[in-house]
Amino acid sequence: MNKIDTNAFLIAAPKSNSGKTMITLGLMQALVNRGLKVQPFKCGPDYIDPMHHTKIAGQPSYNLDMWMTDEAHVQQTFTQHAAKANVSIAEGVMGLFDGAQKDVGSSAAVARLLDLPVILVVDASSTAYSVAPLLYGFKNFDKRINLAGVIFNKVASQSHFQFLKEAAIDAGVHVLGYMPRDQRLAIESRHLGLHLPGENQNREIVNIAAELLENHVDIDLLLKITQKEIQPLTNQELNIQKRFKIALAHDEAFNFSYQANRDVLDELGDLVEFSPLNDKELPEADLLWLPGGYPELFAQQLANNVKMKKAIAKYIDSGKALIAECGGMMYLGKNIITKEGETYPMTGVFDFDTSFENMKLHLGYRDLKGSDISIKGHEFHYSNLIGEEKASADYQAKTARGRDVEMPVFRRKNCWASYMHLYLGKRDKMLQMIKELGL
């Protein structure tokens, strides 16, 4: 099969909170506005940024994570979807070389594996010519990385940009342009993670960012220096009998689903969505999946939907299979207690409350092992569990560095619940999990 000429690049930064998400979303919107088909990707385990990517690009965003899965899967995921697009954009995670251990699993590792040119976003709000050694270091630290260009963020004026441009030229890095400091974009980076994709304020901000980038970044040059040939994968007919009926919760309260997980579920069964917020009964299903999301923001509405709570409790009591991740697990407890101290009753399947009072961040990769299962995923939440429910002793959780970590797994018949967001984008891993649930 002939190679396909396309464009592809990875947007990275020297550190977190440099503005790479805003630049990524703005560039996606600008390219969509030009009539190009944009395929988004996200380095690392994040499930919120891909939701915003998908809303803008109109294409599902896929995670490229070399810790939760292997190189072959990352390569296949990228190639399969990039081959169908005009431009593929991978948003990096943290700083370019920040990985689970040194640069293992970092944005740089993804760029090396996929031979992606890197566009570096540099927060220039408090610097000028001093960015020269910074850029020189990022360009020369690892010669296997193609640092194709730089976009400066939060630039105060044209004269400020001139200092930055001279620095980049002296460091040997293409200057693509800049995002000016603009009060209309003066929001915390956390905003995008706390508000749902498609909300009016988010859409307005992204449209402003796209307009500013069109005016101040040479997008034609960006496309010229990020041309890439992709060898499409050979079509392999999957001779898989759809054995299961699968119901996936998906609404404003439950929406953190890795797209690769959804794809495998769709291969293995007939996949339908339902809403714990709005529906009164469950679809017929062999496997029910309650993903993470924002149940605490919709606690009253969830509490008021008594018919759905009873339907889920009855489903579990019947011995059918259920997976609940993070927010889905909270929904299976007795109550959700908001940060204001308000208590809302949930399904009561497990004897614990989830409290957002005295919030503390729990964050990191998780490697979970049981007697017949080994899966990886990610933990990210601010809540704490209160209650008498005993965790299963059959599982042991470790961090990416191999240290033991407390992350309880709760079992009730064939119901499986924990704070862990599972990455089961490879068919063998999904089948392993399905077997664990007695299917």
Automatic annotation (TrEMBL):
Keywords: ATP-binding, Cobalamin biosynthesis, Glutamine amidotransferase, Ligase, Magnesium, Nucleotide-binding. Residues 10-189 form the CobQ/CobB/MinD/ParA nucleotide binding domain. The active site is at C326 (nucleophile). Pathway: Cofactor biosynthesis; adenosylcobalamin biosynthesis; cob(II)yrinate a,c-diamide from sirohydrochlorin (anaerobic route): step 10/10. Residues 245-427 form the CobB/CobQ-like glutamine amidotransferase domain. It catalyses: cob(II)yrinate + 2 L-glutamine + 2 ATP + 2 H2O = cob(II)yrinate a,c diamide + 2 L-glutamate + 2 ADP + 2 phosphate + 2 H(+). Its cofactor is Mg(2+). Its EC number is 6.3.5.11. One of its GO terms (molecular function) is ATP binding. SUPFAM superfamilies: Class I glutamine amidotransferase-like, P-loop containing nucleoside triphosphate hydrolases. One of its GO terms (biological process) is cobalamin biosynthetic process. Pfam families: CbiA, GATase_3. The record marks H421 as: Increases nucleophilicity of active site Cys. InterPro entries: CbiA/CobB_synth, Class_I_gatase-like, CobQ/CobB/MinD/ParA_Nub-bd_dom, GATase_3, P-loop_NTPase. Catalyzes the ATP-dependent amidation of the two carboxylate groups at positions a and c of cobyrinate, using either L-glutamine or ammonia as the nitrogen source. The a and c carboxylates of cobyrinate are activated for nucleophilic attack via formation of a phosphorylated intermediate by ATP. CbiA catalyzes first the amidation of the c-carboxylate, and then that of the a-carboxylate. Belongs to the CobB/CbiA family. Comprises of two domains. The C-terminal domain contains the binding site for glutamine and catalyzes the hydrolysis of this substrate to glutamate and ammonia. The N-terminal domain is anticipated to bind ATP and cobyrinate and catalyzes the ultimate synthesis of the diamide product. The ammonia produced via the glutaminase domain is probably translocated to the adjacent domain via a molecular tunnel, where it reacts with an activated intermediate. This is Cobyrinate a,c-diamide synthase. It comes from Marinifilum breve.
